[in-house]
Design brief:
Elements lengths: L2 E6 L5 H13 L4 E6 L10 H9 L14 H6 L2 E4 L2 H10 L10 H10 L8 H16 L18 H23 L16
Parallel strand pairs: 1-2, 1-3
Helix pairs in contact: 1-7, 2-7, 5-7
């Protein structure tokens, strides 16, 4: 079974939200984990973000923040940081993980532009994403990818905007991974290149 690792700074808002939403969509077809580059070990998700997760039928209470380790990176088939700073941290910590690392905004772009990865299961398709990403996006980089803003400590609107942005991108990626191999995502409202 393939493993997806979502990464942000504190593992309190962005990466756990992305992990929980992807887990909900893929329903056990892949292992989805999350961690933070500067996580306060054991802390829970802030109240402002828990509200949005509950509205989507997700119980946020079990989550406890974890600090990113090399072992987590080594075990992941696909690593998805939320911002350029985490992409750089991963690249410095484990240079050989660069080909498996795609910022969430970059991964969503790949999902909109590339055919579904080869594989008969979602797990096999996840494992095939790095090679497909290199073919369609070029060498791994975070240069052209936008950060998902960190809402931690900000007003309620920031939490809502961050949550909605993450949910939209996770839905795009999940739809792409669930589609039969070779097809493009058919998410409405998102133009696809011909």
């Amino acid at each position: 079974m393939a493993t997806v690792l979502m990464v942000c700074s504190g593992n309190l808002c962005r990466s756990p939200v992305a992990a929980m939403l992807l887990t909900q969509r893929l329903d056990g077809d892949v292992r989805v984990r999350s961690a933070g580059t500067a996580a306060p070990e054991g802390a829970g998700i802030p109240r402002q973000m828990r509200r949005h997760l509950r509205a989507d039928g997700i119980d946020p209470r079990p989550h406890r923040a974890r600090r990113l380790t090399r072992a987590m990176i080594d075990a992941a088939d696909l690593i998805v940081p939320m911002a350029h700073a985490q992409w750089q941290y991963i690249a410095l910590m484990t240079p050989d993980a660069a080909s498996r690392t795609f910022m969430l905004t970059r991964l969503a772009t790949l999902a909109r532009e590339a055919p579904t990865p080869e594989g008969t299961s979602v797990s096999e398709r996840v494992a095939a994403v790095p090679e497909l990403g290199t073919l369609h996006l070029g060498p791994a980089s975070a240069d052209n990818a936008a950060d998902i803003p960190d809402p931690y400590g900000g007003p309620s609107d920031m939490y809502r905007e961050s949550y909605e942005q993450i949910r939209t991108m996770v839905d795009t990626v999940a739809t792409w991974l669930e589609a039969p191999a070779g097809e493009r995502s058919t998410e409405p409202g998102i133009p696809h290149p011909v």
